[in-house]
Amino acid sequence: MYAFVDTVESGGGDALLPSEALKFNGEYLEQRIRGYRTLSVSGREMLNAELEELAVGSKNGSEYLYKRYPPRDITVQFQITASSASMLQERFNELNKILDVENAVLVFRDEQDKYFVGTKSAVSLPDEGRTSTVGKFVLHCPDPFKYAVAEKEFLAGFTSDGVLTAYIVNGGSVPVAIDYFIKHYHDNGYIGIVSDDGVIQYGRVEECDVQQGNKSEMLVDLSGYAGLNAMASGGGVQDANNQYPLNGSFRAVTRDGIQYLALDNVGSGGAWHGASKSVTLPADSNGEVGAVNFYLESRFWFNTDKVPQTGALELVVGDANGRHVASIHVVKSTTAANQCSAVFQINGTEAGRIKYEPGYWSVTGNDRKPVYIRKSGELFEFCFGGKKYQYRNPAMAGVKAVSVTLLYLQYGTRGAVNLVTKMFAEYLRFRKDDVAFWYDVPNRYASGDELYVDGSESKLFVNGIASLDDEILGSRYFKAGPGMTKVEFYYSGFSNPAPEVKVRIREAWI
After folding, report:
1. Model confidence at 212, in pLDDT bands (50, 70, 90)?
2. Neighbour-count burial of 191, counting CB atoms closer than 10 A to its CB (0-12 exposed, 13-18 middle, 19+ buried)
């Protein structure tokens, strides 16, 4: 016994379809239109090639130039049946509607793993008054090739020579475009794609991952009594390389919640004497001790309550041999007038002096501003009272600062009773400038970046954005021909781990 199949009205399942049934943009026409059936298909077979030749003078024959394949026309012969002429016409109308699509994907049942791309160019009309008719329509394919429905993917791996390589196997009969998918797991300056048929490059080979630059490093940052008192007591470098007796001591003084370093016991001596705190600069991040270029900042409170008061507060920079490099001194030595001086010294010699009255309203009183010494080669800049003073000393251009000293002084036998009432330091900060270091250069491709090369369009996309400027002039895109194509991938040597590379092709046949 055989199962009965109504070929007139049954759409039927896939098993009942003709072997050459056409799946048009994903659906078989037999399953879209009742009473429709594919009878035959022509035009999918071998295709004539058009040859271009050149006749040269009287030379026999001609010179071969190239060949090309013209567009392909696929003709589908079909049958439509209906229970009435009007219904037949309706089914033809439906067929025309379905076929009226540009660049449709065409898959035939006897070759379901391949497709053409075509557009309806002609269709026959049914005879009037018939309930069953045979017709034809033509699908014009400007691209004559048929393509694999599924793409093939190849993962690049390292050869024994350490070259990232993909081996592409094209089982089709014509060369096809290659798509590349590249994911980065480290910064990278360039991607090179190399085969025997061409070379593509994005970015530049010479792009580096790190460059040498200069930065500033804070070597000393001490605040308040606790910070300043932690420095070594006694010793250090004094102004103009003097050697004052330093037999005094320090105490903490609190004002408005801030603990300052103040002189307690002023010590003794025939001229200036007192106490000191000093610090040797630590090495920078490169292990180098000393700073040719630096910035030293502090804040002084130097405020008299009585005219006869005297005292000195000094900030001194010394070199590796214990010699004077530069200093700022705030000193009041006269008992006859409420006047003091800010003295700037370089290499033990006075470079400048400012006289002012050290009252509570002064630049070292309630409105006290930071003081600093900045050295840039031979240029020394002193800041006092919010104003800058610059001096050049070529002989000191290469000298390195190695220590910083704070000196608190009183004169002769005047004692603590006649010491400037508020003679305090709040903090001390030393910054080394122009420290050499290697810094990471933001490379063209960062870790996490994904590159997609559209082989058919010869375009690069970085993280989904067209990046045509990345392409190096002279790049030549190539295809994967029938058989095996070896493709090598190159990238910056500092990019570790290597990028992940996947290659995809869609095989094609004549």
Report:
1. low
2. buried
